[in-house]
């Protein structure tokens, strides 16, 4: 694979202040280092979390004997334990790895720290990076050291706020979707460090990989559809905030809990595609092959048109 590229850094200054317009319309990741996030940067120690009024709150967590959580082989179980127990488990040196991705009151409702973790939410100053009316969810991510979350994309823009410990984030652009060996919406590549990675997955030679290490106080903008895999280097606490970046409520699936359901027009397009390919299966294999290839030509034509429109737009912007 090509060497990793750095994520662009945006330093917040008097002339570049924090505001929703900073990220609005931006379609590439950005690192906003050392933001003033409030008391949480010093108070969110394991002891403070364990002693907090939320200590007995039950949370649903991922537990695994492997540090590398894999959504395809599902090498983890879900457990319901107290918040204090989760923090204690993450800090104990054992062969079990723990991960909290907070949810709402049920497994189908969205997480909102102000509602579900109010005393801790009060210690975090949320950077004003999106319009409040577009808010979707705020999520606690608490991980054991070394825990790696599978590579995935979300369908909403989000910022990952690092509060405690450090995290390594690897990102791939949406344009590389056809080189990432997707099974549905997840890549089948699990071990990015494997010696035979490129023999097994040769198209990875062509992907553009970005990498950044987050330290406490750093905020990473992860645009919708960017693939990302995240490894907690130490015991880690992060919060991430999702918002609806597209104008058009009708695009978003009302049943989305995680911020990762494909947009409604895309879901409908996939259903239509399934029907189209089912139609072609009625034909003998050589006919089916021929018409599938013709469908690829139509798709490629549309991609070419999009590309030339983008190139024209970029050259207009430069003039
Ligand atoms: O930090 C993590 O553990 C995962 C974060 C993530 O997937 C996201 O911000 O979308």
From TrEMBL:
Q: Which Gene3D superfamilies match?
A: 6.10.140.1470, Cupin
- The residue ranges of the JmjC domain are 92-260
Q: Which GO terms of the molecular function aspect are on file?
A: tRNA binding
One GO biological process term is: wybutosine biosynthetic process
List the Pfam families. Cupin_8
Q: Which residues form the signal peptide?
A: none
Name recorded for this polypeptide: tRNA wybutosine-synthesizing protein 5
